[in-house]
Amino acid sequence: MIMRDYLSELPTPHRAGITSLLTECDRLEASSKKGIIRYRHPFESIKEIRAGHLDFSSDTVQIGRPDELAPGDREKLYKVLRGFMPWRKGPYEVFGIEIDAEWRSERKWQRLRDHLPDLAGKTVADIGSNNGYYLFRMAAHQPRLALGFEPHLHHHFTFKTLNSLAGQSNLKSEMLGVEQLGLFENCFDVIFMMGILYHRISPIEVLKETLKALRPGGTLIVESQAIPGEEPFALFPNKTYAKAPGTYFVPTGICLVNWLTRTGYLDVELFHSHPMSSEEQRRTAWMEFESYENFIDPANPQLTVEGYPAPHRVFIKARKKG
Questions:
Q1: In DSSP terms, which residues pair with 135 in a beta bridge?
Q2: Is the pTM of this model over 0.90?
């Protein structure tokens, strides 16, 4: 098993269970034939490259400058980065290679930036961290540890490759899901859960486990797909919502506030809501599959292709009792 020094600093009583899970994650990472060929070999082919220039405070996460690459390394790096397509979160600029991801994730960060708790020296979790765009943005605030929970091998290795280039020792990613969050009891000062809750069959149970993982006085930031409306309702789609089969409860903003309040959170604040658009989620040269415009009724942009209300996004901040 790969040693995780950060585990010894976490106050969880379930360290043995976490260690067992991570041992299994390491085994799966090392034994997946598809993962070894598609992800591990490319990652290892550029692991000697290190960036000098880093900028995590700008909208585009910048890792390295073009003049830092040795001759011939740019083509190799470009091929590796293209191999990690589709890129869902971004934008990135890696040694001058511009990666225009499907989501303009900087817009989401801009909306929550003024509502961030102090991250300096704190232990932070990002649930569903994907390729780590938000982990890198958190790095600008100097957390003690920012730990991504990302169960998908593709996204896990994409972050692993980017952070190998960036060399940020306080940023980590593990192939764990929200289901394992409760094992990290009283561990995190701040938890980010963005774009996750509507994919869970039991959102209330997820919020309970999240509350358990926060330290007393800790902060949860939730960003979620939602439907418009002022009533405390949630849509439960028949088969798909905006073509996504793994979507279950899609709440109104006030419904999500009620979920958090009844789960036990304090100071629940819905601080932003906006309708989705193809300006923020779209097909690009780095994500060539269907995107938002394909999920919406072409004759009525207020509806999904299934006839449901088109998605909004809501941002909520809440606190665990101190």
A1: none
A2: yes
pLDDT (tens digit per residue) in 222-280: 999 999 999 999 999 999 999 999 999 999 999 999 999 999 999 999 999 999 999 99
Half-sphere exposure of 121 (CA within 13 A, CB side): 0
User: Tokens 């040693």 belong to which residue?
Assistant: 3
- Which residues, 6+ apart, have CB-to-CB distance to 249 below 8 Å? 197, 198, 203, 234, 235, 236
264, 211 contact by CB (below 8 A): yes
Helix 153-166 to helix 15-31 angle, to the nearest 10 degrees?
A: 100
133 phi-psi bin (left φ>0, alpha ψ -120 to 50, beta other): alpha
Q: What is the number of other CB atoms lying within 10 angstroms of the CB of residue 69? A: 19
Strands 312-319 and 214-226: antiparallel
* Contact indicator for 227, 275 with CB cutoff of 8 Å: no
Token pair listed for 275: 């309708």
Q: Could you tell me the end-to-end alpha-carbon distance of the chain, in angstroms, rounded to an integer? A: 36
Strand pairing report for 250-251 and 234-235? antiparallel
